[in-house]
Amino acid sequence: MLVGRITEAHRSHYTVFVSGEEVLATVRGLFHETGDFPKVGDYVTLELLADKKAVIERVEPRRSVIKRRGAEDDEVQIIAANVDLIIIVMGLDGDFNLSRLERYLLLAKQSEIASIVVLNKKDLVEDVEVVCTEVAAVAGAVPVYAVSATTGDNLTVISEHIPPGTTAVLLGSSGAGKSTITNWLLQENRQVVRTIRKNDSKGRHTTTSRQLFTLPNGGYLIDTPGMRELGVLDQSDSNEEAVFKKVTDLAMRCRFSDCDHDKSAGCAIVAAVASGELSLREWHNYQKLLRERVFVEQRDATAALRHADEHAERVAKRNEALRRRRLNSGG
Known about the structure:
This protein is α/β, with parallel strands linked by helices. The protein has nine helices and 13 strands. α2 (about 100-110) packs across α6 (about 235-245) and α6 (about 235-245) packs across α7 (about 245-250).
């Protein structure tokens, strides 16, 4: 048995880097029973077969994992495993969205993985420093860098964050420049790069699957497809305080502990919005996360009730069938 690493997950098989080469691997039947399949970045124990084929026996314990909720089915999805650094890429064109950035930062916080923010396409902005200051106010202690993937300007700061043995993952919208950054770090054109639409600055999902690459310096990089929606998992009070510390600190200064932050007298948040201390964007985004948390809690409660009703109905039908059987048998 050998230990390799998943570099790409396909529909029915996996590409695994093991003993200095890539092999195509399938999984044992147990994986189909549990549904817990290997993910890109996983270390796996496998048995080598002929013709560069292999069978995956088990997934080694993960030291970290990045998860999100699906945009359509709300199921928990694993983006990547065994990651040391999340690189949040956002374009300084139509892709620029501070509310989305906050959600990526929350994802990194929940994953307990270090992160940096990379503002790509700095050549499209007249005053980069002003934009960086605005983003830094949202990012807090997370480093923020402005780069140009097309010219290579300042891209060395990214490679400095990926020393040998470190695994980084690129996260961001389609068209943000992740594939171009990947090619620069690899020092070769491995990822296809397409032009983006000028009317909305969106790409066409050039990268269609998650892939792990070995960088020339011995680091590792996972490129991911662009995400239209980013559903974070746990929107608990502690996480909200971590990302939106300004809002929660203000809420502590309200006159009443049950302040509705709307019409209640002595509301510190209303006063902060009025004075400009708290922007409407920050406040609206905070409210959005709170609404999503309530929705998830109500949905889970409704599902539990539905399952209980379905179980009760099955029990009633089974009891009725037994009663009729006794009647028919004359018992």
